[in-house]
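Q: Is it fine to ask for two folds in a single conversation?
A: Yes, each is treated on its own. Send the first.
Q: Here.
A: Result:
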Amino acid sequence: MAEDFEPIQPGEVVFRLDLTAAQLKLTHTALKALLDDYGHDEQDVIELIRTVLDKLPDEHSIRAIDLRHEAMRETRGEP
C-alpha cells in the first residue's frame, strides 16, 4: 500500500472546499485570529496563513456577511 503513495508536491492543489457565507466568515475570522497568535519568529507560518487568507474574498466583503442572519438561513435550509 505504501508503494501507491505519491507525496504532495509543493504548490500542488490537493483539496477544494465549498463554503456557505457563514462558514466563509467563520473561516476568515479563525485564520485572522490564528495570524494574530503567531510571533515574529514564526514568519514561515505567518506567510502560509496569509497565502490562505489571500485566497478568500477581501476584508470588506467578509465584514458585510451577517453571521447571525446567515446561520439562521442555514438552519432553515434556505439557499
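Q: Second one now.
A: Result:
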Amino acid sequence: MASNLDDTIREAAAKVRQYIEDAAVMQVRTFYVLTGTEELSKLDAERPGAFTEVKLDGDTKVVVPMRKGRDDSMELDEALFSIHERNVQAATDYRARVLGALIGLLQRR
C-alpha cells in the first residue's frame, strides 16, 4: 500500500506536469475600452488592442495595434503597444520564475 507521502508526491508531480503543459504556450492579450462621460457600467465592451503568443519552442505570434494616420497611412499605436509590451514582459518574468521554482523542486527530489 502506498504511503501518504507517495500519494502526495504523485499528486504534486501531476500538478507540475499539468503546469508545464499549460506553460508550453503563453498568451498575453491587451484590451481597451472607449471612455467618455458615461457611467462606468455603460462603457463600451472591451476591444482587442494587441496580442502575443509565445510557445516554449520559441515560435511567436504578435498582433500589434495599428490605426489610420492623417494621410490614411497605417501607423503603430505606440502608447497601447507600450502597455502591451510591459504586460508581455511581466508574464514572461512570472513564467520564468514559476518554471525555475518547479525545476528547483524537481532537482531536489
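Q: Anything structural to flag on that second result?
A: Two points. Residues 70 and 76 are 13 Å apart (CA to CA). DSSP finds two helices and five strands in the chain.
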